[in-house]
Design goal:
It contains 1 helix and 11 strands, in the order E-E-E-E-E-E-E-E-E-H-E-E. It has about 130 residues and is mainly beta. The strands form 2 sheets. Strands 2, 4, 5, 6, 9, 10 and 11 form a 7-stranded mixed beta sheet that branches. It has a 4-stranded antiparallel beta sheet with strand order 1-3-8-7, with no helix packed on it. It is globular, with a radius of gyration of 14 Å. The mean pLDDT is about 95.
Length: about 130
């Protein structure tokens, strides 16, 4: 079992920055990790992902160039640095872990929420205009 706890959310003005953290505990932290978000009345959407080694990352077009995902495996923590925030970034942000062996051996990650099997409780990010 893996437990994920997000932190770092809050209220920020447009153009501001926040850094989200996702601390993992439990089994060895060698999983691909993803950040997703969900705004009221909308489906959960992919934000960014990182392979277990940290060598590969990707992000959604809507946040590319503004958000950066990273990880520190020694601290069992994944980060999402969010810069130049916009009101449309307002959502609950979730981190998730993909424990599948196929993902591990491929050194990749998934863009699909259904392929992640551990989730944090979420942290609210609100961007005011």
């Amino acid at each position: 079992q893996v437990q994920l706890v997000e932190s770092g959310g809050g209220l920020v003005q447009a153009g501001g920055s926040l850094r989200l953290s996702c601390a993992a505990s439990g089994r060895t932290f060698s999983y691909a990790m993803g950040w997703f978000r969900q705004a009221p009345g909308k489906e959960r959407e992919f934000v960014a992902a990182i392979s277990w080694s940290g060598r590969r990352t990707d992000s959604a077009d809507s946040v590319k160039g503004r958000f950066t995902i990273s990880r520190d495996n020694a601290k069992n923590t994944v980060y999402l640095q969010m810069n130049s925030l916009k009101p449309e970034d307002t959502a609950v942000y979730y981190c998730a872990a993909d424990s599948r062996l196929t993902t591990y051996y491929s050194g990749s990650y998934s863009y699909t929420p259904d392929e992640y099997d551990y989730w944090g409780q979420g942290t609210q990010v609100t961007v005011s205009s």
